[in-house]
Specification:
alpha/beta; 17% strand
């Protein structure tokens, strides 16, 4: 008999879903030291890992598991959420791209002023989009980009070919080609290898680039990003993630004219979708089969 402990902002919903699911030989408990399985938001779970002596498997309710990777406990199997964020991320990315290319906000402002004035616009067709990260989210964004007629490049650790990308390369190789790129989207996770990898050296060859970060704030050197904006290497940065969240009131991002920020909302976990993944994984666990979406603690993903 396994015992599951839920620690989440949506704990009430998860408890209801657990009650209705009737998963075999699984009991819900309200103390972390009693549970072999945790269904947990990583930032809330990390401080309680010291009570997890019996913990054997933790199902993260987030895709990002930074808080657990950096915690000094690795005695359990960790799985995260994958495969449900691609469409949400793509909506966010192309919502901003279309707003910029078709002047949507500008026309809304003009309507309030009763101002009839047309503006030249550009099409996404024929533009080059580079995506940092060729995982499930990057692949979904690439698919949507192709529907708009864009050319799509991708990066991964070894430059291996991935379906949906016209060309893939390493991050270092892309740096040399940034002058060819119109839009850059980062989906990178936070790992020791990606820490501040989007830095001053990276922006060296950029020219009037639009940058969107829906990955992790830890991958971006924020001072270098501001400098690249001020030097016109970048014309706009759309940031859903930052080094520190919530963003401090004194941070220059708040007032920079070419930075758009959102409070980490590009792809929010919906409890019902997360629970479906958990329930499938629990059935694997109960049957003695390998868990889906396992995280390698050393790699960070």
């Amino acid at each position: 008999m396994d015992k599951v402990y839920v620690i989440s902002e949506h704990a009430e919903t998860y408890h209801r879903l657990l009650h209705n699911a009737t998963l075999p030989e699984l009991t819900v408990v309200d103390r972390p030291d009693q549970a072999t399985i945790w269904l947990a938001d990583p930032p809330l779970a990390a401080p309680q890992l010291c009570y997890g002596d019996q913990l054997r498997w933790l199902q993260s309710t987030f895709a990002g598991i930074d808080a657990l990777i950096y915690a000094p406990y690795r005695h359990y199997q960790l799985t995260n959420v994958r495969g449900i964020f691609g469409d949400l991320m793509a909506e966010y990315v192309f919502g901003y791209l279309l707003n910029e290319t078709r002047h949507i906000t500008q026309y809304s402002d003009q309507q309030a002023q009763r101002l009839w004035q047309a503006h030249d616009y550009t099409s996404l067709r024929g533009k080059t989009l580079a995506i940092l990260g060729t995982g499930a989210i990057g692949q979904h964004i690439a698919t949507v980009a192709h529907a708009f007629g864009m050319h799509v490049l991708g990066t991964n650790q070894d430059g291996r070919a991935v379906e949906g990308f016209e060309h893939t390369m390493t991050l270092t190789a892309l740096r040399q080609r940034l002058g060819e790129v119109d839009v850059l989207v980062s989906t990178l996770p936070a790992t020791t290898e990606t820490a501040r990898c989007v830095n001053a050296d990276f922006w060296q060859y950029a020219q009037d680039l639009l940058f969107i970060n829906v990955g992790r704030g830890a991958t971006v050197d924020e001072s270098a990003l501001i400098k690249a904006l001020d030097e016109k290497k970048l014309r706009l940065a759309v940031l859903d993630v930052m080094q520190q969240e919530p963003l401090p009131q004194a941070h220059p991002f708040w007032v920079h004219p070419r930075v758009h920020i959102t409070p980490h909302i590009a792809a929010v976990s919906f409890p019902e979708q997360v629970f479906d993944l958990f329930a499938d994984n629990y059935r694997r666990w109960h049957a003695g089969k390998p868990l889906a979406h396992q995280v390698n603690f050393n790699k960070g993903y």
